[in-house]
Design brief:
By secondary structure, this protein is α+β, with helices and mostly antiparallel strands. The protein has helices at about 10-25, 30-35, 50-55, 110, 115-140, 160-165, 200-210, 230-240, 245-255, 260-265; strands at about 40, 55-65, 85-90, 95-105, 150, 155, 180, 225-230, 270, 270-280, 280-285, 290-295, 300, 305-310, 315-320, 330-340, 345-355, 370-375. The protein has a seven-stranded mixed sheet with strand order 7-18-14-8-11-10-9.
Length: about 375
């Protein structure tokens, strides 16, 4: 009698496991949420054979809007045509490797503990990869160009090479001229004071600035934008009693007008912590939003945070292995290695990808606007 087997060495088993792990990682990161909302641009040509075979970067075109004055009745269009405004966006992809080495399952060390070395290591490798991906998103979108050491989740990144692992392998670019506003209208992040905290007023100002732009930010599904704030900024938004529009007044007025109070009770939407919706902006919490950056010396500014309002194609993601739920392969690969007569087993999580804010040369940031505020911890 014949039966179908799926041994641990089967390549298909490994690929299925990697796919499942990648999907779980996307569900646990803001990157996955951004993919679902249309914030992430993925260059289709990256998956072609010619691109996959060689190289560690990709450049793709971006076409600006037409700006010439039209020709009216009696005018001559011949000779007065407008050339396409062709520019480009370039990004790098590279490798981040995470490894754990343990005594194997049939060793005395494993018998001495109830901690199962291999499955625990696999889970921790996955969680570490989640940290790298999620950090990269916000280092990019916040335009965190600080030269200071960056400490995230217990790890300090000092050198430029080390920082690339939490920057999506691309050096962050500061917000373009018309893609940043600051509470209180101050000139730079280091000037933000304790009265310059997050408020609904700032969302109004951000929408106004976008509307006035020669290069407007495109809406996400439902003609909406998403705003991502740090936990400190969310607390300030809730409790800001000096704001022109107070959060709880706004919410209670909605309820008094007959709307459901579910937004006051529930803080979860689309698998993200969500404070609610103001006008056409969903407000989410993102724990790895970055500090402000001093214009004087590029140091990180304590007690400040850079919230980010995003629309379509705000950030680009690239990997020769895909990464979207519809792709057949994934950027997260897992490798095992036996050592010392199989006494030790190493487990590697290998990420091959790049993340970069969409910043075509000579253009405003395509889909993001930074809102810098004072944001001290309330604990």
């Amino acid at each position: 009698m014949a039966s179908t087997s799926m041994l641990t060495s089967n390549a298909l088993r490994k690929k299925l496991w990697e796919k499942k792990t990648w999907v779980q990682m996307m569900q646990a990161t803001t990157l996955g949420h951004l993919f679902n909302r249309g914030v992430v641009y993925f260059p289709e040509k990256f998956l072609t054979k010619s691109v996959k075979e060689a190289g560690d970067h990709i450049t793709f075109g971006y076409v600006g809007k037409l700006t010439n004055v039209p020709v009216g009745e009696g005018g001559t269009l011949d000779g007065n045509e407008e050339a396409l405004d062709l520019t480009s966006h370039s990004m790098v992809f590279n490798t981040s490797r995470i490894g754990v080495l343990n005594p194997n399952s049939d060793t005395i060390e494993q018998k001495r503990t109830e901690v199962m070395f291999e499955p625990t290591s696999v889970e921790l490798v996955k969680r570490r990869a989640i940290e790298l991906l999620d950090s990269s998103v916000w280092q990019q979108l916040c335009g965190n160009t600080t030269t200071s050491d960056i400490t995230l989740n217990g790890t300090t990144y000092s050198s430029s090479a080390d920082k690339l692992h939490i920057q999506g392998h691309n050096t962050p670019v500061a917000p373009s001229t018309n893609r940043i506003i600051r509470a209180g209208g101050v000139a730079n992040d280091q000037s933000l004071g304790s009265s310059n905290i997050m408020a609904l007023d700032l969302i109004d100002y951000a929408i106004e600035k976008i509307s006035q732009s020669d290069q407007p930010i495109e809406f996400l599904d439902g003609q909406t934008f998403d705003l991502y704030c740090s936990p400190e900024q969310i607390t300030d938004l809730y409790q800001n009693s000096s704001a022109k529009i107070k959060w709880y007044d706004f919410m209670f007025n909605k309820i008094a007008g007959g709307e459901s109070n579910s937004e006051m009770v529930s803080t979860f939407k689309n698998n993200m912590i969500c404070a609610g919706r103001y006008k056409n902006v969903y407000i989410y919490q993102a724990n790895r939003i970055t500090n402000g950056v001093s214009s004087a010396d590029s140091s990180a500014v304590a007690n400040t945070k850079r919230a980010v309002l995003v629309g379509r194609d705000a950030i680009s993601f690239a990997s020769p292995f895909g990464g979207r739920p519809t792709d057949k392969d994934v950027p997260m690969k897992v490798f095992n290695e036996l050592k010392d007569y199989d006494y030790f087993k190493g487990i590697e999580g290998r990420l091959i990808y790049g993340i970069k804010k969409m910043t075509p040369s000579g253009k405003e940031d395509v889909g993001s606007l930074v809102i810098s505020t004072y944001a001290a911890s309330h604990g």
